[in-house]
Write a structure and sequence with these properties.
By secondary structure, the protein is an alpha+beta fold. It is built from 31 helices and 31 strands. It has an 8-stranded mixed barrel with strand order 23-24-26-27-28-29-30-31, surrounded by 6 helices.
Length: about 800
């Protein structure tokens, strides 16, 4: 061995000793092991050291022994360098670890005959590494357990670590976050804020805290940055709920500030003392006092602010808040700073903490002045007539209940008077509703001026007034006389002319009186009795007074029974028939007939038209009855049309005012004519003068429409009603009929004779033919013919006949051919 090589070996051993290493070699043949002194010392082996690999293995831990054998085998077999850490089998509390490294010496290819290497004591290094790993594990566990999102950034603001909460918050896995700049992961609504804040924190080594809304997360995030040696530690906290709560509170405060309702919030202390925390703008506007004047002051100041002791109205709720246990609500008349008043609907609500202690109260007040005024107006509209200012029907009923109760208690008689004005509808239609309103106001004035102050005057309906008389004395006879005197006074005063502007109006009145006293009976019954008496008075001539008596009730009951039977008959059918009374020309030739409705009731027998037609008018049954008669008449015209000798005959059908004004009347007439195939000119509709008294324009329009389609018209009972010549010339008439009341006495009453002649002359001047009805004697017939009457109808010539007898009569008489 040369000196240089020897020196090299010494240097090598010295270097290895300095590094804590020792050398070894192993002859693979026989597995002979040679350990250097340093190696044996490192392995803790006493002299003599193991001579073979197999002797060394028991000095290692079991798992390490196996690991080292496999490493030597791999090196010997394939030349793989040895680099393995093994644990020594020692009884010390601390484990000892060594590292074997080695490599085969060059020899025949594919096989190593000797392996040389070194062993290094790595126990200290191993302990440091294990402690570092344990610390890292503990830190990782700690960071993972933080409920907030946590991450660390390096000095380039790239993510180095994220915990589980961070991945949940960012909605991305950890591998998608690590290594990426934070500004690429979060894009706030405030552009550049995150970058600037992170840069400032890194540069200034100062902790920062800020928050922003991040649209991609749809969250408000609060970020707290804490610098440390490696970069930044970031805490990310989702504050969306807090921000929403703040936003809601802001909206609520803004809303409370701006609403029109007054809001006052007061805080309650540990004693009964309290102070006002808040008042809104509406409080300032409504009261005239500023916030500075009331905020911080005790609630008692509200008494001075309003000028009215609302404290008592709030049942001590404002000044003694602790006495307030439930919500209070009151309406109070308050006063502004300028002295004006207003109505306030005030709610005071106690607010308590979790332990039930009163902490605050909130008062909310709404200005209800307009509502109160509207309520007063509604009350007046509900209980008073707006035109006359008198109590209305509802108010009368309430007052009448009180008057009847007082009468029963004091045993004093009283009376209810109903007053109906006549001709007011005519006045409205001729002079306008303004004149009618003026009349009602003047009637009110006369009634109130001529009655006692204790008497009640009310407007019961459109043209009907009521007077309640009280304290007429205990004697019924005397009370009747007093009521009679008042009724006479009313009739007299209302019979005097009314000056309606430049028009002088005379009115008739119907007065009905019903007495009340100690006898049992309610308001409804009394109203009915007074109404019946008034209706009875209305049936008399001129202005009349009637007192209620039971016979009126009996008549009403009979009328109601008749109406019920009539309705049942209309619904069932089979009880009605049409009789026809022929009409003749001057030569007594048949020109047509008038259709007359007859009712044969199974129990009542034959009911007179004069009895049931008014009932049909009142009940509205006149319309279906009228349509049925029209249908029967058109059927008869169709039957006559099939025979040449009767095809020219016409039929007159009476039409009531109510039926004529039905909106479908004209269409129903034309539909009936069309259904039976009848020429419209053969149908004549008889109208009464009462039709001229209401809705004349509508009447003219409907008559013109039917006239254009061929239907003819006759004016029945001419001279008994309105008889306005100005209206007469406007109507599209085809005939005038002289009423039988004039015909009956024209031979004995010069006036009736003069009227008959005048009607005939007037009709001829208007180019209208005249038909006289009710002709019963030859003398009447001769007088009418001599006076120029064109057509005749009456018992002298023919009575009303059933349709079967009519056919026989018609074919036995000569015809007038058109």
């Amino acid at each position: 061995m040369s000196s240089a090589f020897s020196d090299s070996c010494v240097l090598s051993r010295g270097a290895m000793r300095a590094l804590g290493m020792g050398s070894w070699s192993c002859q693979m043949e026989g597995r002979k092991l040679t350990l250097g002194a340093d190696a044996a010392e490192i392995l803790g082996l006493a002299s003599p050291s193991p001579a073979s690999l197999d002797e060394l293995l028991p000095h290692l831990a079991q798992e390490s022994s196996q690991l080292l054998q496999e490493a030597f085998a791999a090196c010997a077999g394939s030349g793989t360098p040895i680099d393995v850490e093994v644990r020594l089998a020692v009884s010390d509390a601390r484990p000892r670890w060594v590292r074997f490294v080695g490599a085969p010496l060059p020899c025949a290819p594919g096989q190593a005959s000797e392996i040389r290497g070194a062993v290094h004591d790595i126990s200290a290094h191993r302990r440091v590494r294990e402690e570092t790993l344990l610390l890292a594990m503990r830190l990782t566990t700690t960071l993972a357990s933080i409920t907030e999102a946590f991450m660390t950034l390096d000095h380039h603001a790239s993510v180095m670590y994220v915990n589980a909460e961070s991945t949940r918050l960012m909605a991305q896995p950890a591998n998608a976050l690590l290594g990426r700049p934070i500004v690429e992961l979060l894009h706030g609504r405030k552009k550049g804020l995150l970058r600037a804040q992170i840069k400032q924190a890194l540069a200034g080594n100062q902790p920062l805290e800020f928050e922003d809304f991040y649209p991609e997360l749809d969250k408000w995030i609060e970020i707290r940055a804490h610098p440390y040696a490696e970069g930044l530690a970031l805490y990310l906290h989702d504050v969306s709920e807090r921000r929403q709560s703040q936003h809601r509170l802001m909206l609520l405060r803004t809303g409370i500030e701006r609403i029109n309702d007054i809001v006052v919030i007061a805080q309650v202390g540990d004693t009964d003392d309290a102070h006002i925390l808040f008042v809104n703008e509406a409080f300032e506007r409504q009261t005239g006092f500023s916030r500075k004047e009331v905020v911080g002051q005790p609630p008692d100041i509200l008494r001075h602010v309003t000028g009215i002791d609302i404290v008592s109205l709030l049942a001590r709720g404002a000044i003694k808040p602790r006495a307030l246990t439930t919500q209070l609500r009151r309406e109070a008349l308050l006063q502004r700073r300028d002295g004006s008043t207003y109505w306030m609907d005030l709610d005071v609500v106690p607010v308590r903490d979790d332990r039930g202690r009163l902490t605050h109260w909130v008062a909310v007040g709404r200005d209800v002045t307009e509502r109160k005024l509207a309520d007063e107006k509604i009350h007046r509209l509900a209980f008073f007539d707006p035109l006359t200012g008198l109590p209305n029907r509802q108010s009368l009923v309430e007052r009448l209940e009180g008057a009847m109760a007082d009468s029963a208690l004091t045993e004093q008689e009283g009376a209810l008077i109903f007053i109906n004005l006549g001709n007011i509808r005519t006045l409205n239609n001729t002079m306008g509703h303004s004149h009618g309103d003026l009349l009602l106001q003047q009637v009110t004035e006369r009634l109130t001026q001529n009655l006692r102050e204790a008497d009640i005057v009310a407007r019961f309906g459109g043209d009907e007034f009521a007077v309640v008389l009280q304290n007429l004395g205990p004697d019924p006879a005397s009370a009747r006389q007093k009521a009679q005197a008042v009724a006479e006074k009313v009739r007299t005063r209302l019979a005097e002319p009314f000056e309606l502007g430049d028009y002088l109006h005379y009115s008739t009145v119907s007065v009905g009186v019903a007495r009340f006293g100690t006898a049992p009976g309610g308001v409804s019954e009394l109203l009915m009795q007074a109404g019946l008496a008034r209706y009875h008075a209305g049936d008399m001539e001129g202005s009349a007074i009637a007192f209620f008596n039971p016979s009126m009730q009996a008549a009403l009951n009979a009328s109601a029974a008749l109406g019920a039977d009539l309705r049942a008959a209309v619904q069932a059918g089979g009880q009605f028939s049409v009789h026809y009374q022929p009409q003749f020309d001057r030569s007594r030739r048949i020109i047509g007939a008038e259709a007359l409705l007859r009712w044969n009731h199974p129990e009542r027998g034959t009911v007179s038209p004069a009895e049931f037609i008014p009932t049909a008018e009142k009940t509205g049954l006149i319309h279906p009855l009228g349509l049925w008669v029209l249908n029967q008449a058109c059927a008869q015209l169709a039957a006559w049309a099939r025979q040449p000798e009767t095809a020219h005959l016409c039929i007159a059908v009476n039409v009531s005012v109510r039926q004529f004004h039905h909106p479908d009347f004209a269409d129903q007439v034309m539909a009936t004519l069309s259904r039976h195939g009848v020429q419209p000119g053969l149908l004549q509709l008889e109208l009464t003068e009462s039709l001229l008294m209401d809705r004349l324009d509508n009447t003219l329009s409907r008559m013109s429409l039917l006239k254009q389609r061929g239907v003819s018209f006759s004016l029945d009972d001419f001279g008994t009603g309105y008889s306005s010549l100005s209206y007469l010339k406007r109507l599209p008439l085809d005939q005038l009929k002289i009423d039988q009341s004039f015909v009956a006495d024209l031979l004995t009453n010069p006036s009736d004779a003069a009227i008959a002649r005048a009607v005939i002359e007037l009709a001829h001047n208007l180019k209208l033919p005249v038909l006289a009805e009710g002709v019963e004697t030859e003398a009447q017939c001769r007088f009418l013919i001599d006076s120029g009457c064109d057509m005749l109808q009456g018992f002298l010539l023919a009575k009303p006949l059933p349709v079967e007898e009519l056919e026989t009569f018609v074919h036995a008489k000569p015809f007038a051919h058109g």
